[in-house]
Write a structure and sequence with these properties.
The protein is α/β, with parallel strands linked by helices and 96 residues long. It is 32% helix and 12% strand. A three-stranded parallel β-sheet has the order 1-2-3.
Length: 96
């Protein structure tokens, strides 16, 4: 969905929390694939290459013992402040 929105010219950011932070961990999502979609890591890389923003919740990352360097290039480890600032600026949110 994020890639479709980005392809449509929208400014898109994804904020990963809890175990969702693993979705941007290099090598972790290689095996995550559900037909008819491409593997998750490929989808995340495509999104990042298109200048999409991926934020990984810093407390969630710390709790899981993941190093910031373990993430796909372009992933930003940050607190909720980044998301709050973005939403306060008028961004719409979609959560599922």
């Amino acid at each position: 969905m994020a890639n479709a929105a980005k392809s449509g010219g929208h400014d898109v950011a994804v904020f990963l929390t809890s175990d969702g932070v693993y979705c941007a961990k290099a090598g972790y999502a290689d095996a995550a694939s559900v037909r008819p979609f491409k593997p998750l890591e490929e989808l995340v890389r495509t999104f990042l290459d298109a200048k999409g923003t991926v934020w990984a919740c810093s407390p969630c990352v710390q709790h899981r013992g993941i190093a910031p360097t373990d993430f796909l290039p372009g992933t930003i480890v940050t607190g909720a402040g980044a998301l709050i600032e973005w939403v306060a600026g008028g961004a719409q949110t979609l959560s599922f």
